[in-house]
Design brief:
By secondary structure, this protein is of the alpha/beta class. It has helices at residues 56-62, 98-110, 116-128, 141-148, 169-183, 206-219, 233-239, 243-247, 262-268, 286-295, 303-308, 316-322, 341-352, 358-373, 401-412; strands at 18-26, 34-42, 49-55, 72-76, 81-84, 133-138, 154-161, 192-198, 224-227, 277-280, 299-301, 326-328, 390-392. The protein folds into 2 domains: 1-77 and 379-416, Roll (Urease, subunit C, domain 1); 81-377, TIM Barrel, CATH 3.20.20.140. The longest helix is centred in the C-terminal third of the chain and has 16 residues, at 358-373. Bound molecules: zinc ion.
Length: 416
């Protein structure tokens, strides 16, 4: 099993042929993760294979002679990083308010910090963490070519589109179509797919958003959009003012408020009909969540980035109540201490505490990620290789509400 601290008994030919691996949560990729469950492995002859997965007590009773390994916290297929920016992997961690962070990203790019070298470092970090499925926002054609032709990677490379000036919508759209026409031939079956990422509903004009959504639907291109990351987005869209307008003044000179919420605005433009995955979606109202549920959109939750940038707390319980699928993403290294969705899962457990069921968070990290990216979700059944499962860090039991509050405060303090 991947990620196991101690050597498998399969290395010792005199050892037992079977082992029982217990964990607080065990997930086989089907249905919901199980609590207090275990995996029965046939470890000899190599390679080790799954015999069955079930309740720990029942398996102990049924196989009393099988040795029990030390308990893990989670045993599950590898999780998915559904949102990151690999080309920002050289950016130092930059805590601060959203507007300051956007400024830091722009400065880092102007200084030449973005690009293929940084993306290679990000890819190496993902590989070291055992992550092979990713949703990446791409701003460099060399990175796009690299991801689309990567032999071991799955997911979506979303080409980022910016353009707040409606007068430039046609030119920006034509340039985007040209990129799609050039790079689509690099897609391979089972490999990374090409997608589009209109940056946000305030940095991409309404006519450009409309064109991109229609094009994505016609071409079958996946979409990913940042929305509701900063509280200032709501007053900006509703009335055209507020802190975001003041901070981004010249860039938003031609922005006209729709009077709606950002999500309502996307719905009105026909963007939700293209079923984009929406990243962050922290600052939403109940009507937004209902619209996302009706449209079948997956929301990507980035808890450590939200904590570091003071974005607020993702309304996990509201999304759960409305049955919206949630995935986990790290966002970039500029706002996240690692690119590992396992770390993101642990942070989410700590931040949401008793407000979120850890089994649901685990579902989000694995199945929600595959749903967001349209990749094939894993299924671990009898006879599957043990390597189809990874064992996530051992550790303390699920936190109490008080411990979760402490962990949230730690994360906001910048430690992550
Ligand atoms: Zn992002």
């Amino acid at each position: 099993m991947k990620g196991s601290a101690d050597a498998p008994a399969s290395a010792d030919t005199r050892g037992p042929a079977r082992e029982l691996w217990p964990a607080d949560l065990v997930y086989d990729g089907l249905g919901r993760p199980r609590k207090d469950a275990a995996v029965l492995l046939q470890v000899r002859p190599a390679p080790a294979r799954v015999v069955t997965i079930g309740a720990l007590d029942a398996l102990r009773a049924e196989y009393p002679a099988v040795p029990v390994r030390p308990a893990r916290r989670v045993i599950a297929p590898a999780p998915v990083n559904a949102h990151t920016h690999l080309d920002l992997s050289h950016m130092p961690l930059s805590p601060g308010a959203y507007v300051d962070f956007v400024g830091a990203v722009i400065a880092h790019g102007r200084a030449g910090g973005r690009g293929l070298e940084a993306a290679e470092q990000g890819l190496a970090e993902l590989a070291a963490a055992g992550i092979d499925t990713v949703g990446d926002i791409v701003t460099d054609e060399r990175v796009l070519a690299r991801l689309l032709s990567h032999p071991g990677l799955h997911g979506v490379a979303y080409w980022e589109v910016l353009g707040a000036d409606p007068d430039e919508a046609e030119a920006r759209f034509e340039a985007t179509v040209a990129v799609v026409r050039r790079f689509r031939p690099l897609e391979r079956p089972g490999g990374v797919r090409l997608g589009l990422s209109p940056h946000t509903p305030h940095t991409v004009s309404a006519p450009l958003l409309r064109k991109l959504a229609a094009f994505a639907r016609a071409e079958g291109l996946p979409l990913q959009i940042h929305v509701g990351e900063d509280p200032g987005e709501l007053p900006l869209h509703r009335s055209g003012d507020g802190p975001l307008r003041e901070a981004m003044g010249p860039f938003l000179a031609k922005f006209r408020p729709s009077g709606r919420t950002p999500v309502g605005f996307l719905d009105e433009l026909g963007v939700l009909a293209a079923r984009p995955t929406l990243v962050h979606a922290v600052h939403v109202v109940d009507d937004d969540i209902r619209r996302l549920q009706r449209a079948g959109c997956v929301v990507v939750h980035c808890p450590r980035s939200n904590a570091l940038l003071g974005s607020g707390t993702f309304p996990w319980a509201d999304y759960a109540r409305h049955g919206v699928s949630v995935a986990l993403g790290t966002d970039s290294r500029g706002s996240s201490p690692s690119l590992s969705p396992v770390d993101e899962f642990r942070a989410a457990v700590a931040i949401h505490g008793v407000a979120a069921d850890p089994a649901q968070l685990l579902w989000a990290a694995v199945k929600g990620g595959h749903r967001a990216l349209g990749t094939r979700p894993p299924r671990v059944v009898r006879g599957s290789p043990a390597d189809a499962l990874s064992s996530w860090p051992e550790g303390a039991p699920w936190p109490s509400a008080a411990a979760a509050a402490d962990a949230g405060a730690d994360a906001r303090g910048g430690g992550g």
